[in-house]
């Protein structure tokens, strides 16, 4: 039995892709995942399953597309992966304010050209003072002025990194880690 942290992209954000967490829990339970638990309204869950990660992600994506009528990106991580990610945080002092440090979880490792594309975003908006640290299939961000106006978002970010990503603030990362640890 494996524990998976499920991260959905673009649900309940700006009125698009509405999915109640009650409906999400029902879907996960109907898919026969065990110990289903969701966290806040942005598409986070922790489940246990005997299935491999690829099958877990594919079955959730198919069920959500059937429900919503549109594709929903599903990204999975294990407790051990979150544990390593937390220990490797390049912004530990800044993470004391968990709303200013974020992690973008990527669907695949970033493209070889990602660093140059991310640097270009930083150079284009120097007044933002946003910083990033690319680490394979995730990116750490420090947003000194908060995440509300960052340029590291959406399709521009996907294009820059060559993968689909979904971001969570440090507080959420820590909460999901704690939820997955209790298993």
Task: Describe the protein in words.
The structure is a single chain. By secondary structure, the protein is α+β, with helices and mostly antiparallel strands. It folds into 2 domains: 2-78, Alpha-Beta Plaits, CATH 3.30.70; 82-181, Alpha-Beta Plaits. Helices cover 36% and strands 24% of the residues. It has 6 helices and 8 strands, in the order E-H-E-E-H-E-H-E-H-E-E-H-E-H. The strands form 2 sheets. Strands 2-3-1-4 form a 4-stranded antiparallel β-sheet, with helices on both faces. Strands 6-7-5-8 form a 4-stranded antiparallel β-sheet. Strand 6 and strand 7 (138-142) form a beta hairpin. Helix 3 crosses helix 6. The model has no long low-confidence stretch (mean pLDDT 91).
> How many strands, which pairing sense, and closed or not: the largest β-sheet?
4 strands, antiparallel
Instruction: Give the overall average pLDDT.
Output: 91
Radius of gyration: 16 Å
Q: How much of the residues is beta strand, in percent?
A: 15-25%
Which CATH architecture of the largest domain? 2-Layer Sandwich
What is the number of helices?
6
Distance between the termini: 10 Å
CATH topology of the largest domain: Alpha-Beta Plaits
Please report the total strand number as a whole number. Answer: 8
Give helix and strand order, one letter per element, not per position.
EHEEHEHEHEEHEH
Report the CATH C-level class of the largest domain.
Alpha Beta
Quickly count the domains. 2
Q: Helical percent range?
A: 25-40%
Structural class assignment: alpha+beta
Strand order of the largest sheet: 2-3-1-4
What coarse outline follows from CA principal-axis ratios? Answer: globular
- Low-confidence spans: pLDDT under 50, at least 5 residues? none
């Amino acid at each position: 039995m494996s524990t998976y942290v499920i991260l959905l992209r673009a649900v309940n954000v700006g009125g698009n892709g509405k999915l109640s967490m009650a409906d999400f829990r029902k879907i996960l339970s109907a898919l026969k995942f065990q110990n289903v638990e969701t966290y806040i309204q942005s598409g986070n869950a922790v489940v246990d399953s005997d299935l491999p990660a690829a099958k877990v992600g594919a079955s959730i994506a198919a069920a959500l597309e059937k429900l919503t009528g549109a594709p929903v990106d599903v990204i999975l991580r294990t407790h051990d992966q979150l544990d390593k990610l937390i220990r490797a945080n390049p912004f530990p002092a800044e993470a004391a304010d968990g709303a200013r440090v974020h992690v973008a979880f990527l669907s695949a490792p970033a493209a070889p050209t990602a660093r140059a594309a991310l640097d270009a975003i930083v150079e284009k908006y120097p007044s933002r003072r946003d910083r990033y640290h690319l680490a394979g299939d995730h990116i750490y961000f420090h947003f000194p002025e908060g995440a509300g106006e960052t340029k590291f978002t959406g399709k521009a970010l996907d294009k820059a990194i060559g993968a689909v990503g979904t971001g969570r603030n440090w507080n959420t990362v820590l909460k999901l880690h704690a939820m997955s640890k209790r298993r």
